[in-house]
Specification:
Low-confidence stretches: none
Helix content: 10-25%
Shape: globular
Largest sheet: 8 strands, mixed
Oligomer: single chain
Number of strands: 10
Order of helices and strands: EHEEHEHEHEHEEEE
Distance between the termini: 37 Å
Radius of gyration: 15 Å
């Protein structure tokens, strides 16, 4: 079973080579559920960067209520456009260093994308993954159906399996919406 192939969450040990970086079974479960919002950045072309201004614009446009301590999901449209094609693996936008730092500055506890990575596939410096390493923030990859929760406030649940020394884990990601 691949711990990074399907919809999954990365362990901090995947992002940080230090021996003290926790593997998936050692991470606090409160990172994997909680209040969440989703923003629409699907207008961004593949191989372009999502920066802080893009995030602010997406929040304003969608009316999303993003708060400190939230889980923030990014609807890039990648899953909807390219699911089950080879383009899915390389044709998506990603967070640049300013978009990544926006998450830190706003106190986002966990985030996720509907693409194979939160970083721009054209980048060779991996600023989003470097931010995650430095600040101990994890993220979900390969989410689906985010178009259905854009601009909404909901409870996100995406618990990992308890894989000993796992660098990630498949999850069944769920958005629980109030009526």
């Amino acid at each position: 079973m691949s711990d990074h192939g399907p919809t999954h969450v990365d362990a901090l040990s995947h992002l940080d080579p230090r021996p003290e970086a926790p593997s998936i079974e050692k991470m606090s479960l409160d990172l994997f559920y909680g209040d969440a919002s989703c923003i629409d950045v699907s207008h961004k072309e593949p191989h372009t960067s999502i920066n802080a201004a893009d995030i602010d614009e997406a929040i304003a446009k969608s009316g999303a209520d993003v708060r400190k301590g939230d889980i923030l999901l990014f609807y890039t449209g990648t899953f909807n456009r390219f699911n089950r094609t080879k383009e899915y693996l390389s044709q998506y936008p990603g967070l640049d260093e300013f978009g990544s730092m926006w998450l830190v500055e706003k106190g986002i506890k966990t985030f996720g994308v509907d693409s194979p990575s939160p970083g721009n596939p054209a980048s060779r410096t991996y600023p989003c993954h470097m931010m995650c390493r430095k600040y101990g923030i994890t993220h979900y990859e390969n989410l689906a159906n985010l178009d259905q929760v854009v601009g909404k406030r909901f409870t996100f649940i995406g618990f990992p399996l308890r894989i000993r020394e796992g660098t990630g884990s498949p999850v069944r990601a769920v958005a629980v919406l109030e009526d």
